[in-house]
TrEMBL record:
Region (C): 569-646
Pfam annotation, one family: HATPase_c_3
Localization (cell): Cytoplasm
UniProt-listed NCBIfam families: PRK05218.1 (NF003555)
Gene that produces this protein: htpG
Family: Belongs to the heat shock protein 90 family.
Protein name: Chaperone protein HtpG
Length: 646
């Protein structure tokens, strides 16, 4: 069959170029990536063979082979795993299907142009998330040939490229099942850390460092052609295969015998991440149901954290991988956790349906969730900086747990911390908040909003600031939801400062405020009634406020109504949201409101008053970060008024 030439997809070409022009000074990782792919392919074949006994693939000696030819300067990484069909080769190798690739490349370019090495390094750390492991071969090779045949198919595919824009593909009749990747190695250049990757010593060193735990045998074969004959070695120069990995499951080895680096390499293998994990958790459960687990927190969130991405941990039964992403083992709000769970007593061909009901799976899921939550809490107490970095990225996800995991609610709350008006730099736990509560304070006050600035500057905050009352500043979308799901903490109810009446201070102060308000109410009664009618389409009530000190007006929701943020969010999720009117509160201490009252008392039919009513309402919306329904009309009314003051 003749070979067809194809062009790399634009993004794929750009990522490939980035790999070639050495983002990574450490080029040794190419072997880690290719071995990792081979190991995945073997796992996939075994899992598929377990489920489908008509597959007809030989699974009796699954292994990885690395063949190094010193004279030809080639290195071949071979597996007899699942292989790829022709379509898969085109789809997986020549294309980067992940959304956001173009955006990522743009950001990386900008960070580099701006000469910001930290940002560029952070962006580079993300490159692994695009599934570019295979491309790393081009860091050390000037030509790569992939020969593959998918299990169950009769023909194979050969893919060849020099990594410069195009690749060729041809159908091959006699390819063995599985995949082999042959690299034509670039000349050795020790100064650029391009080592001699045909050297058995070097290969063993890399495999030991990055891939020792791979459960499949990794066999090394060296070929040295004629030179070897002269050295008195075997004819043809091929050595006997030598297994070069110890194949010991890291999770089964005592902690004292495993280095952090080894744990990190396992994490990289299973998570397809290129950066070290932030945290490693070991669980060793003994007794009637034995299992071991190694769990990791990534340092950076995967890009698909909030969409349907890979999630769950790998499930092994007695060292045999039976499921790559076992969602049943971690609740959805801990979906960022990666790792391995190895159980002693589960059936090898357990199906997803059975998994959900399996008592042992449920037991492990509970224990894992508790352990993860207690680890986060411990991190918060003992390693605040690390916790801060973690919480910034993963806090919004963990807080989702408050919506459904009632059993672990206290543990989740103990892991949570929130931005607060008490300290702009430091977050606080609910426990810390409660300990700081003022005498007579009955509630945990919070405000939700789009940003810290919007919340802090919103008029709702005024009286609380005045009285020195701490308010939690909740700006993640999920905050809109969990505050309604968590009724109280240590007997203190959570209360939004943008909802209902604000009743602040001691009993005495509250009584006094009430009396003052009642008196003002009489004074302002006519204006309030008139405004209520005037703005009746927009608001359900106009009343005097006890939360404002400097702003003229604000809008609040009824205690059981959804905030505007929540309404927007639910609408975006496709939920019908019936219109619900809000309440306009006025500050009688403000000159504008006092003036309005006077003007209304002098001549209630003055047409200017109607425009003023609209302006006051529009300003209240703007002050909370919202906007008037008809912004151009609002500006027009305002401009006309201002013009007259000049
Ligand atoms: N040896 C192999 N056998 C079968 N399929 C393979 C093999 N190598 C690669 N593939 C397929 O090609 C895909 C792309 O591989 P690549 O290494 O570029 O990305 P990845 O494995 O998804 O992510 P990464 O390697 O960055 O962690 C793989 O997901 C896999 O489906």
């Amino acid at each position: 069959m003749t070979a067809e030439t194809f062009e790399f997809q634009v993004e794929a070409r750009q990522l490939l170029q980035m790999m070639v022009h050495s983002i990574y000074s450490n080029k040794d990782v190419f072997l880690r990536e290719l071995v990792s792919n081979a190991s995945d392919a073997l796992d996939k074949l075994r899992i598929e063979a377990l489920r489908d006994d008509t597959l007809g693939a030989d699974v009796s000696d699954l292994h990885i082979e690395i063949e190094a030819d010193k004279d030809a300067r080639t290195l071949t990484i071979r597996d007899n795993g699942i292989g790829m069909s022709r379509d898969e080769v085109v789809g997986l190798i020549g294309t980067i299907a992940k959304s956001g690739t173009a955006e990522f490349l743009k950001k990386l370019k900008e960070a580099r142009q701006a000469g910001d090495p930290d940002k560029a390094a952070a962006a580079e750390g993300l490159i692994g998330q695009f599934g570019v492991g295979f491309y790393s071969a081009f860091m050390v090779a000037d030509e790569v040939t992939l020969l593959t045949r998918r299990a169950g198919e009769s023909t194979g595919t050969r893919w060849t490229s020099t990594g410069e824009g195009t690749y060729t593909i041809e159908t091959v009749d006699d390819a063995p099942q599985g995949t082999s990747v042959t690299l034509r190695l670039k000349p050795v250049d020790n100064d650029n850390r391009l080592f001699d990757y045909t050297s058995p010593w070097k290969i063993k060193e890399i495999v030991k460092r990055y891939s020792d735990f791979i459960t499949w045998p990794i066999r090394l074969i060296t070929t040295a052609g004629e030179q070897k004959d002269q050295d008195g070695e075997k004819d043809g120069g091929k050595s006997e295969p030598e297994t070069i990995n110890s194949r010991q499951a890291l999770w089964a080895r005592p902690r004292s015998e495993v280095s952090d680096e080894e744990y990190h390499e396992l994490y990289k293998h299973i998570s397809h991440d290129w950066t070290d994990p932030l945290e490693t958790i070991r669980i060793h459960a003994e007794g009637t149901f034995e299992y071991q687990a190694l769990l990791f927190f990534p340092a950076q969130p995967p890009r698909d954290l909030f969409s349907s991405g890979r999630r769950g941990v790998q499930l092994y039964v007695k060292r045999v991988l039976i499921m790559e992403e076992c969602e049943e083992l971690v609740p959805p709000y801990l979906r960022f956790v990666k790792g391995v769970v190895d159980a002693q007593d589960l059936s090898l061909n357990i199906s997803r349906e059975i998994l959900q009901q399996d008592r042992h799976i449920q037991m492990m899921r509970r224990r894992l969730a508790k352990k993860v939550l207690s680890t986060i809490k411990e991190m918060r107490v003992k390693q605040p900086e690390k916790y801060t970095a973690f919480w910034r990225e993963f806090g919004p996800v963990v807080k989702e747990g408050l919506l459904g995991d009632f059993e672990n609610r206290d543990a989740i709350l103990a892991a949570c911390s929130f931005a607060t008006t008490h300290d702009a730099e430091k977050t606080a736990t609910l426990q810390e908040y409660v300990e700081r509560m003022k005498e007579g304070q009955e509630h945990i006050f919070y405000m939700t909003g789009p940003s810290r600035t919007a919340v802090e500057n919103s008029p709702h905050m005024e009286a609380y600031r005045d009285k020195g009352l701490e308010v939690l500043v909740l700006t993640d979308p999920v905050d809109e939801l969990w505050v309604d799901a968590v009724p109280e903490f240590q007997g203190k109810k959570l209360r939004s400062i943008a909802k209902g009446e604000a009743e602040l201070g001691t009993e005495e102060e509250k009584e006094q405020a009430k009396a003052e308000r009642e008196q003002k109410q009489q004074e302002y009664g006519d204006l309030l009634e008139w405004l209520g009618k005037q703005l009746g389409d927009e608001v359900k009530e106009v009343r005097l406020s006890s939360r404002l000190t400097t702003s003229p007006a604000c809008v609040v929701s009824d205690a059981d109504d959804a905030t505007p943020g929540l309404r927007n969010m639910l609408r975006a999720m496709g939920q019908e949201m019936p219109e619900s009117k809000r309440i306009l509160e006025l500050n009688p201490g403000h000159g504008l409101i006092a003036g309005l009252r006077k003007a209304h008392a002098a001549d209630a039919s003055d047409p200017e008053l109607a425009a003023m009513a609209e302006i006051v309402y529009g300003m209240a919306l703007l002050a909370e970060g919202g906007r008037p329904d008809d912004p151009s009309r609002f500006t027009k009314l305002l401009a006309e008024r201002l013009e007259r003051t000049l």
